[in-house]
Amino acid sequence: METPNQIPDLESLHLTQNEQNLVRKNRKYAKCFDDGDLSHLPAKKYAIVTCMDCRIDPVSAFGISLGDAHVIRNAGGSAREALRSLVISEQLLGTIEVFIIKHTHCGMSGITNDSINQTVLKNLGAAALAELNGLDWLPFADLEQGVRDDVAFLKASKAIPKSVNVSGWVYDVENGKVKPVKK
Question: What is the model's pTM?
Answer without folding.
Answer: 0.90
